[in-house]
Amino acid sequence: MEFTAIDYSIFALLLVLSSAIGLFYALSGDRQRTVQEFLLANRDMGCLPVALSLLASFQSAVAILGVPAEIFRFGTEYWFLGCSYFLGLLIPAHIFIPVFYRLRITSTYEYLELRFNKTVRVFGTITFIFQMVSGAGAVGAAEFGALGVAQHCSPSLQVIYMGVVLYAPALALNAVTGFDLWSAVLTMGLVCTLYTTLGGLKAVIWTDVFQTLVMLAGQVAVIVVGAWRVGGMARVWRVAEQEGKIAGIDLDPSPLERHTFWSLSVGGIFMMLSLYGVNQAQVQRYLCARSEREAKLSCYAVFPCQQIVLCLSCLIGLVMFVYNLEHPLAPSRRPASSDQLVLFFVMDVLQDLPGLPGLFVACLFSGALSTISSAFNSLATVTMEDLVRPHFPGLSESRATLLSKLLALGYGLLCLGMAYVSSMLGPVLQAAISIFGMVGGPLLGLFCLGMFFPCANPTGAIVGLLAGLAMAFWIGIGSFLQSWGAKGVPPANSTTLPTMGNLSTVLATTLLPPTTAPPRWDGGLGSGCAGWGGAAASPPDPVSPSPTGLQRFYSLSYMWYSAHNSTTVILVGVLVSLLTGPTPAAALDPRTISPVLPWLLCCLPPKMRRWLCCGGGDPVQAPGHADTTEKSHGVPNGLSHPGPDWQGAEGHGYVRSATAPIYAVQETSF
C-alpha cells in the first residue's frame, strides 16, 4: 500500500492551490489592510461560498474517517441524524442570524455585553477560548464525526483540539501507508497558517470552497469504485439489509440509549444549534455575508449539502462492509483500531488505480485544513475583539489589523506545538477532549437565556453559565471515571480509554463515543468483520446489569449533552434572575431580544407574558408589520434606527448609548 508519484502530486497540488488562494487575496483588493477585511471579508460575501465554507467547517477529517466506521460497525441508525438538520439550520436562520447581523457585531460575544454587561462577555469569551484550545470543538456535533466532537470546544480547549485535528489524520495515514508522519503535520500546519494569516477570512472561505469540492470528489470516487468491485450499489444495499446493517426507526424514548430516533433527531438539533447558532466560527461567516438575506440563504443552502455529505459517508460505510465480506484482509494487514478502517479500505480498493488514493488523502486533509483554518480565524477574531480592543480603545486600524494577523499566525504555530503535545498525552488528552467537548451546550444556553428571557439579568447569566459548565464537567468526569473503573469496559454512552498509543483512537472516543454498542457482540470491529477485525476479536463480555443511581446519570447518551446542559443554564439563569430582581424594562436593549419572541409567547396567558418580559408591555400586543415599519423610522422588522446617539467604529458593531432604550419586543417576518 505505497503511494505513487501521481498520488503525491495530487496531494501536493491541494497544498499549492490552497496557498495560492491565500496569496491571491493577500495581494488583491485592499490587501487585508483593515480589520473589517481581514476578519469579516469586508462583509461582501455571497451566499454560496459562505454555505460551502459552513459545510467545510462542519466536515472535518475526523468525520470523514469516523462516520463510515460507525456505519460499518453498527449499521445505518446514525443516518437519522440528518433529521435534525432541518430545524438545526432553520432556527439559526430565523432566530440567531437576525439578532447578530442587525447588531453589526464582529465577535459573537459582543452580544453578551450588549444584552448583559462586560463581565458576562468576558466569561463567554474565556469559555469559548478554553473550549477551542483544549480540544473539544467546531466540529462539535455528532456529524463532526463519529470520531470527534471537536467542533463543540471552547477557545482554550480549541487549541489542543486543533493540534489533535492536525495530528490524528496524519497518524492514521502514516499507520496505513507509511506516509511520513511529521512531514505531513508540518506541511499541513504551515500551509494552513500561511493562507489564513495572509488572506484573512476571504481566503479561508474560498479555500473552504475548493477543499469542499475535493472532499466530495474523494468520497464519490471511493463509493463508485468500491460499489463497482462488489457488483453495484443495489447489491451493496441488499447484502447490508440481509446482514442486519440497515436499521429501522428505534422509537425507544430512553435518554440512556446511545442512538435512537429521538436522540439523533431531537438531541441532534441542540448539537446543531450550539454549532450553527452561536459558535464564533460559523457566526463569523454569517456576518461576512453582504446582507441578512444572503446570510439566511447560506443557512438554507447548507441543508441539502449536509444531507449529501452524510449520505456519502454512510454509503462508504456500507460499501466498506460488503467489500470486507467478499475481500477480507490477511491477518497481518488488519487495522488495529476502527479509525483506520476507512484508510485500509481505500488503499485496498484503489491500490491498482493510480491517483485515486492520492485524491482520497487530499480529501482527508482538506477536511483537516478547513477545520483548523476556521479555528485560527475565529480565535484571532475573539481574542482581538473581546480581549484586546476593549482594553486598547485607541488602537489604530493599521495596528489592529497587524495584530489580528499576528494572532492568527500565533495560533497557527501554537497548533503545531499542540500537535506534538497531543502525540505524547494519550489517555490524559482523551479525557480532556471528552469532558471539554460538552462546553458548547452551556454557551448555547447562555445565548438563549439572553434572547428569549428578557427578565434574565447579568447575575443570572453568570450563575447559569457556571451551573451549566459544572453540570457538563460532572457528567463528563463521572462518565470517564466510571468507564475507567469498570476494568476498561465502558458503558454504552461514556468515553473510553484508548488501549494503545494511537491518538486517532482518542478521537474515536469523543463526541460520538466509543464503539461499544450494547448489547451485541460483533466479534471484533463489527458484524462480519472476520477479515478486518478478526485480530481484535475477543469473547463477548457478560451482559452488565442496568445502571442505577448516578450510573444512570453518567450513562446519558452523548446526543443529549447539549440539550441537558443548555437547559440547565436557562433554568438556573431564570431562577437566579427572578430571585435577584429581573432586568428592568428600561434597561433592556430591544435589539438583543429575538424578534420571534412574540410568536413563541402567543400561547401563554397575558400575565405570564408580562412576567417573562420584566413587567413591560405585552409583546404579543406589538404593532403589526406596517405599523412597525412606521414607528421604526422606515427600518423594517422592528429594528430601531441607531440614530444620532449611536456610536460605531469599524468592526465594533453597536455600542450602548448613555440612556438605555425602552424595551419593546416587535414581530419580524419570516
TrEMBL record:
<dbReference type="InterPro" id="IPR051163">
    <property type="entry name" value="Sodium:Solute_Symporter_SSF"/>
</dbReference>
<keyword id="KW-1133">Transmembrane helix</keyword>
<dbReference type="GO" id="GO:0015075">
    <property type="term" value="F:monoatomic ion transmembrane transporter activity"/>
</dbReference>
<dbReference type="GO" id="GO:0006814">
    <property type="term" value="P:sodium ion transport"/>
</dbReference>
<keyword id="KW-0739">Sodium transport</keyword>
<feature type="transmembrane region" description="Helical">
    <location>
        <begin position="299"/>
        <end position="323"/>
    </location>
</feature>
<keyword id="KW-0325">Glycoprotein</keyword>
<feature type="transmembrane region" description="Helical">
    <location>
        <begin position="428"/>
        <end position="453"/>
    </location>
</feature>
<feature type="transmembrane region" description="Helical">
    <location>
        <begin position="359"/>
        <end position="382"/>
    </location>
</feature>
<dbReference type="InterPro" id="IPR018212">
    <property type="entry name" value="Na/solute_symporter_CS"/>
</dbReference>
<feature type="transmembrane region" description="Helical">
    <location>
        <begin position="460"/>
        <end position="481"/>
    </location>
</feature>
<keyword id="KW-1003">Cell membrane</keyword>
<dbReference type="GO" id="GO:0098660">
    <property type="term" value="P:inorganic ion transmembrane transport"/>
</dbReference>
<keyword id="KW-0406">Ion transport</keyword>
<dbReference type="Pfam" id="PF00474">
    <property type="entry name" value="SSF"/>
</dbReference>
<keyword id="KW-0812">Transmembrane</keyword>
<keyword id="KW-0813">Transport</keyword>
<feature type="transmembrane region" description="Helical">
    <location>
        <begin position="260"/>
        <end position="278"/>
    </location>
</feature>
<protein>
    <recommendedName>
        <fullName>Sodium-dependent multivitamin transporter</fullName>
    </recommendedName>
</protein>
<feature type="transmembrane region" description="Helical">
    <location>
        <begin position="79"/>
        <end position="101"/>
    </location>
</feature>
<feature type="transmembrane region" description="Helical">
    <location>
        <begin position="6"/>
        <end position="27"/>
    </location>
</feature>
<dbReference type="InterPro" id="IPR001734">
    <property type="entry name" value="Na/solute_symporter"/>
</dbReference>
<dbReference type="GO" id="GO:0015293">
    <property type="term" value="F:symporter activity"/>
</dbReference>
<dbReference type="InterPro" id="IPR038377">
    <property type="entry name" value="Na/Glc_symporter_sf"/>
</dbReference>
<keyword id="KW-0915">Sodium</keyword>
<comment type="similarity">
    <text>Belongs to the sodium:solute symporter (SSF) (TC 2.A.21) family.</text>
</comment>
<feature type="transmembrane region" description="Helical">
    <location>
        <begin position="402"/>
        <end position="422"/>
    </location>
</feature>
<dbReference type="GO" id="GO:0005886">
    <property type="term" value="C:plasma membrane"/>
</dbReference>
<feature type="transmembrane region" description="Helical">
    <location>
        <begin position="122"/>
        <end position="142"/>
    </location>
</feature>
<feature type="transmembrane region" description="Helical">
    <location>
        <begin position="47"/>
        <end position="67"/>
    </location>
</feature>
<keyword id="KW-0472">Membrane</keyword>
<feature type="transmembrane region" description="Helical">
    <location>
        <begin position="181"/>
        <end position="201"/>
    </location>
</feature>
